[in-house]
Automatic annotation (TrEMBL):
Pyrophosphatase that catalyzes the hydrolysis of nucleoside triphosphates to their monophosphate derivatives, with a high preference for the non-canonical purine nucleotides XTP (xanthosine triphosphate), dITP (deoxyinosine triphosphate) and ITP. Seems to function as a house-cleaning enzyme that removes non-canonical purine nucleotides from the nucleotide pool, thus preventing their incorporation into DNA/RNA and avoiding chromosomal lesions. Belongs to the HAM1 NTPase family. This is dITP/XTP pyrophosphatase. Its cofactor is Mg(2+). One of its GO terms (molecular function) is ITP diphosphatase activity. Homodimer. It comes from Larsenimonas rhizosphaerae. One of its GO terms (biological process) is purine nucleoside triphosphate catabolic process.
Amino acid sequence: MPSLVLASGNAGKLAEFSQLLLPLGLTICSQSEFGVSGAEETGLTFVENALLKARHASRQTGLPAIADDSGLAVDALSGAPGIYSARYAGPDSTDTDNNTRLLQALEDVPSGHRQARYWCVLVYLTHADDPVPLIVQRDWQGEILTSPRGAGGFGYDPLFYLPDHRCTAAELSKEDKNHNSHRGRAVRDLIGLLSRT
Ligand SMILES: O=P(O)(O)OP(=O)(O)OP(=O)(O)OC[C@H]1O[C@@H](n2cnc3c(O)ncnc32)[C@H](O)[C@@H]1O
Ligand SMILES: [Mg+2]
């Protein structure tokens, strides 16, 4: 019997979470294993959308839930695509479509002006009507390349260059991405909070 539901339908996120949440010693199942489809992401902030997703999964399963709402904020695009990162090129867009749109949007932006950051907001609810959710948020800074590099990770990782590592997030090992990423750090913060409750 699982003790926690992960409110995400993104396979890339799920792979990262399953590695990151191992220290919790809990059995974690993704919402799709319960036949739960994604919540409508109608919020205007990451935290609102994370709450919507966690509440939806918790209500449908009767289990505590963790949700991640995340995205890429590009300085030269005034923070876009932001909360719309997953649907940047349209409602059913693939990672490749979104990366292509991002490169087009930044066509005239020279190197040195292509700073960006990923955001990850995590919400943990003990039950669907939990009035005191645990909430953590972390970012990860990088720069957007002019063409993709690497095959790891997901989403915008092949375009997300990390000057300190001299490679993209898609060229990092899984362990190194989890060690450094917005999601990895947010999960460790959340584990810290959970251990104090
Ligand atoms: O809502 P769920 O079901 O969790 O899955 P999703 O893919 O729709 O997730 P979001 O609504 O949170 O949108 C996040 C998008 O931001 C991008 N993103 C977030 N974290 C990322 C990461 O670690 N690497 C690459 N892209 C990331 C990627 O395009 C995601 O689809
Ligand atoms: Mg989503």
